[in-house]
Amino acid sequence: MSPFFVMSLLFGLVFGQTASLCAPSEYTIHVEKRECAYCLAINTTICAGFCMTRDSNGKKLLLKSALSQNVCTYKEMLYRTALIPGCPHHTIPYYSYPVAVSCKCGKCNTDYSDCVRERVRTNYCTKPQKLCNL
C-alpha cells in the first residue's frame, strides 16, 4: 500500500467525510441512435470515488432504512446537450447528459444515479465514432 493511501485512510477514520475521495472525474459516454450514421463519444464529468461508511454489527436489530450506505453522488450538476451527427431529418438528433460540477457523499438517489453495484458494460460504439468535447 502506498503511504498516501494509508495516510488518507487514517485521516478519513479520524475526520469522516472530510477525507473522502469523492470528486468529479472525467468520463466518456458513447451515444448512438439506430437511425443515425455515427456514434458520438462525449467527454463529461461524473461523481466517482470513496466515501466513508459505518457498518453496524447489529444489522438484524435496525430498520433497513438505517442500513443504507453513503455513496459518491452529485452535489451540483448541470445538463448539456450534444448533436449526434448523421441523423435523418425525421429523427431528433440531440442527446442531453449530466455534467458533475461538485460531488458529495450521501444517499443514492435513483432519480439521477445508477445505484446498482455491478452494471452491464455497454459503453461502446457499434458505428463509426465522432468525438464531442464541449
TrEMBL record:
Chief site of localization: secreted
Species of origin: Nicator chloris
Lineage, broadest ranks: Eukaryota, Metazoa, Chordata, Craniata, Vertebrata
GO CC entries: cytoplasm; extracellular space
GO biological process: G protein-coupled receptor signaling pathway
Name of the protein described by the UniProt record: Thyrotropin subunit beta
Compartments reported by the entry: Secreted
Keywords on record: Disulfide bond, Glycoprotein, Hormone, Secreted, Signal
Gene3D superfamilies on file: Cystine-knot cytokines (2.10.90.10)
Recorded GO MF terms: hormone activity
The keyword Iron-sulfur belongs to this UniProt entry's keyword annotation: no
PROSITE patterns the record matches: GLYCO_HORMONE_BETA_1, GLYCO_HORMONE_BETA_2
Alphabetical list of PANTHER family matching this protein: GLYCOPROTEIN HORMONE BETA CHAIN (PTHR11515), THYROTROPIN SUBUNIT BETA (PTHR11515:SF5)
Subunit structure, as described in the record: Heterodimer of a common alpha chain and a unique beta chain which confers biological specificity to thyrotropin, lutropin, follitropin and gonadotropin.
Signal sequence interval, chain numbering: 1-16
Family note: Belongs to the glycoprotein hormones subunit beta family.
Domain Glycoprotein hormone subunit beta: 21-125
